[in-house]
Amino acid sequence: MAVGSPNRPLRVAVIGAGPSGFYAAAHLLKNPHVEVDLFDRLPTPYGLVRGGVAPDHQKIKSVVRQYDKTAQDPRFRFFGNVELGRHLSVDDLRQYYHLICYTTGAQTDRGLDIPGEHLAGSHSATAFVAWYNGHPDFRDLSFDLSRERVAVVGVGNVAVDVARILCRTPDELARTDIADYALEALRHSQVREVVMLGRRGPAQAAFTNPEVKELGEMEDADAFTLREEVTLDPLSQADLAAAPDRTIERKLEILQEMAVHRAQSRSKKLIIRFLVSPTELLGDAHGNVRAIRLEKNELYRDDRGGLRPRPTGQIEELPVGLVFRSVGYLGVPLPGVPFNARAGLINNADGRVVDPETGRPVPGEYTAGWIKRGPSGVIGTNKACAVDTVDRMMEDAARSEHLHPGHPSAAEAEAFVRGRQPDVFTYPDWLKLDALEMAAGEAVGRPRVKFTRIDAMVAAALR
Ligand code: NAP
Questions:
Q1: Total-model pTM
Q2: 149-153 and 322-325 as β-strands: parallel, antiparallel, unpaired?
């Protein structure tokens, strides 16, 4: 009897329980006779929805209801607190599954590659985001919030999140599920001014309109731009005239409005700068950041018609005590899985993992989401991406192009996993944690109070 039939279900391991992992699982389960085990190195599911989405964006987090529905399918299992490369290897997975799909996202950040980048007080935005969202690996970091002025390098939506969290009042933050230690630290924050730094112009800013508009709607912070930096340059103007784009026009309106209405009534200031690139972080005698050196840019048209920044030689020094670089996430390799280090992606063609030596697909191995295509798009973008990969998986499986595991049974896989990690979290274990977090939140009028230590999660749900 073929694999994928009533007595021989197609068994699939999905590695990484963020949005892409759940979307892959959901699409796989649309086929009869498919079983999915979704692994995550954390005890908690949902990846960046829990550890990345800003705590003051609770509505975005309601997407987990869809994932929860997927998890209710009796052919779905969650194995949390199980790490590939630590508790199991790819070779182990090959013994238990016909197909493997990697959906581990982009877990680290891109650097700026400028002098002073590693001074005390210079951090990656991704670490700060993971810290305020209570990610267990980042919860013990500390950020010196006694500084008055902070620079955030980059003008993508992550930079916007970081700037907003730094500018929110304790009351605004208390209405969110921000980690309790972060709420406490931010309550005592001395930060008064946050400067976001875009290397290109306002028309090229990566942030989306609702996100930048929200910066003008905070309780106790005013958002500003500089008129000369939000006045459209001739090249962008020509591009917009040739191909009118309502979204960009609206973005310009929002940013230009921020230059005109410079209300000064609120206690914090957020300044969005354009056409400046950091060239160096300057330190004080104790090795702490004291300033960021910026070079003014102008735009030029590159060979492919895109508008790129180039330095004009005009330098300015901005005194700052804290710097967050927010210039994009970066994928990290998984042990035993071909990786394209330059791109920060699993080496793949259309979601099929490809051996770089032979250029041929690695049998039975696939990838979806940010680790397949890079850190871009909104949460829903990963749905189409995962669906595409799963379509390739099912096409291959229909041609019997899958692995031939010695132990293709759900019971054997679970026994193996438990042998390697006795503290495995099932979906019901997570639901127990979830209920405890919500109850702790309800007691203090917050959406939830998160567990942020793995040993506390184990004690609460497994013991
Ligand atoms: P992003 O959107 O790619 O933005 C990266 C920013 O860094 C851009 O402004 C980029 O400028 C800048 N940059 C890159 N290299 C630089 C350098 N060497 N010097 C100065 N600036 C540099 O990445 P992201 O903000 O990390 O967000 C990742 C994805 O998640 C995005 O698709 C985003 O929309 C999404 N996201 C969405 C939300 C939401 O919907 N609320 C929230 C968070 C994240 P250039 O354009 O000039 O390269």
A1: 0.97
A2: parallel
Q: Cα-flanking dihedrals φ and ψ of residue 245, to 5°?
A: -135, 110
For ligand 1, the distance from its centroid to the CA atom of residue 344, given in whole angstroms, is 15
Q: With a 6 A CB cut-off, is 159 part of the ligand 1 pocket?
A: yes
Q: Best of 327, 370, 381, 385 to mutate for ligand 1, by most ligand atoms within 8 A of CB?
A: 327
Type and span of the H or E element at 314: strand 307-319
Q: Which residue has the tokens 């796989």?
A: 28
Tokens of 96: 């238990």
Residue with tokens 């085990």: 37
Write out the chain's pLDDT in tens, 463 residues.
Answer: 789 999 999 999 999 999 999 999 999 999 999 999 999 999 999 999 999 999 999 999 999 999 999 999 999 999 999 999 999 999 999 999 999 999 999 989 999 999 999 999 999 999 999 999 999 999 999 999 999 999 999 999 999 999 999 999 999 999 999 999 999 999 999 999 999 999 999 999 999 999 999 999 999 999 999 999 999 999 999 999 999 999 999 999 999 999 987 667 899 999 999 999 999 999 999 999 999 999 999 999 999 999 999 999 999 999 999 999 999 999 999 999 999 999 999 999 999 999 999 999 999 999 999 999 999 999 999 999 999 999 999 999 999 999 999 999 999 999 999 999 999 999 999 999 999 999 999 999 999 999 999 999 999 999 9
Torsion sign across C-alpha atoms 248, 251, 255, 260: positive
The CA-CA-CA angle for residues 131, 134, 137, to 5°, reads: 70
